[in-house]
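User: Second chain of the day. Same drill as before.
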Amino acid sequence: MLQRRSNPFEGQKNVFGEPLKPCSERPLTGFYRTGCCHTGLDDVGLHTVCVEVTEAFLAFSKARGNDLTTPVPDFGFPGLKPGDRWCLCAARWLEAFQAGEAPRVVLGATHQATLEIVSLEVLKRHAIDLA
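Assistant: Same format as last time:
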């Protein structure tokens, strides 16, 4: 009898305690390349903030030693352009926020683990998906 494997990411929640929504399939994002900002023990960088990158943020990140524009095919990384959505490290987002370069956030697709690094109040000020 074939046993069904459980999804290790099932039950992961967003910053509102609701089911985590997808961030991006094009480009395919997430530490685990699931399209969602799932996290787990392997994700030491906490890639949990779903953002829409801007030219200013990409320049900021590159200046800080993290070039997000150059493709790295060996790691399945296509390189980002302004307007792409991406699961960003929570600490990098906070660093960009403190420097005035934080990209906008998709709260429904941002993992609740982000709240260990950044307050919901601060995230809401940069939200794309609040009415």
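The longest strand covers residues 47-52.

User: Great, on to the next one.
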